[in-house]
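lol forgot to send this yesterday, sorry. struct tokens for the thing we talked abt
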């Protein structure tokens, strides 16, 4: 099985796996895990905010994603077309593009946000 991670899931799985549910930990341990360019984009845009997951995301990304060989999905035109067709269930643009990628890649999204399953994707937590 291949899965896509939302940003929290990606960070927590690599540095604080105890924050994941047992189900999420088990799936991530057994699956082929994909990150998304949207994960890095979100980490960078939110790095200076009070509740940022990471204060310095680029070195973290290079160490934990690039050097460990986690494949990263680019954001492609097909993803944006899928994004354009999504109903307004969720407003976060990063979650929306991850949902669109989950749809276009036909893979589950590992996320703590249960609302995302309302888009008809498989959301694992």
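and heres what i got for the seq, position by position
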């Amino acid at each position: 099985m291949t899965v896509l991670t939302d940003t929290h899931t990606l960070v927590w799985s690599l540095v604080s796996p105890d924050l994941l549910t047992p189900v999420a930990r088990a799936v991530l341990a057994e699956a082929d895990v994909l990150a998304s360019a949207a994960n890095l984009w979100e980490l960078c845009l939110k790095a200076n905010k009070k509740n940022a997951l990471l204060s310095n995301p680029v070195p973290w990304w290079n160490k934990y994603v690039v050097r460990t060989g986690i494949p990263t999905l680019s954001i492609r035109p097909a993803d944006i077309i899928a994004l354009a067709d999504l109903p307004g269930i969720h407003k976060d643009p990063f979650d929306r593009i991850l949902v669109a990628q989950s749809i276009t890649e036909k893979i589950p999204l590992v996320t703590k946000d249960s609302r995302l399953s309302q888009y008809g994707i498989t959301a694992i937590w």
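The longest strand covers residues 32-36. anyway ping me if u want another try
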